[in-house]
Specification:
The protein has 79 residues and is mainly α. It contains three helices and no strands. Helix 1 packs antiparallel against helix 2. It is elongated and about 50 Å long. It starts with a helix and ends in a 9-residue tail after the last helix.
Amino acid sequence: MTGYYDLVLGLIPAALIGVTAFLALVGLSLTAALPAGAAVAAAVMVHAMFVRAPVADDVRGDAARSDRRQSGPGGRSSV
């Protein structure tokens, strides 16, 4: 089964090459098209790392529950 991050790994070079080739074909110089393609590829990576971070929900939930068990009233340690 293809997951989100598998698609992202394929989309990074596709965005870099595809956007660069498209902009070069419509008349933009290669030295101007390449940074634009790199910016799109970087945006895909930023989205994958920060918008849809690769953190399991169970791990985040377990950590929050264990912090609540160890703390007393008001979030302070009861020890």
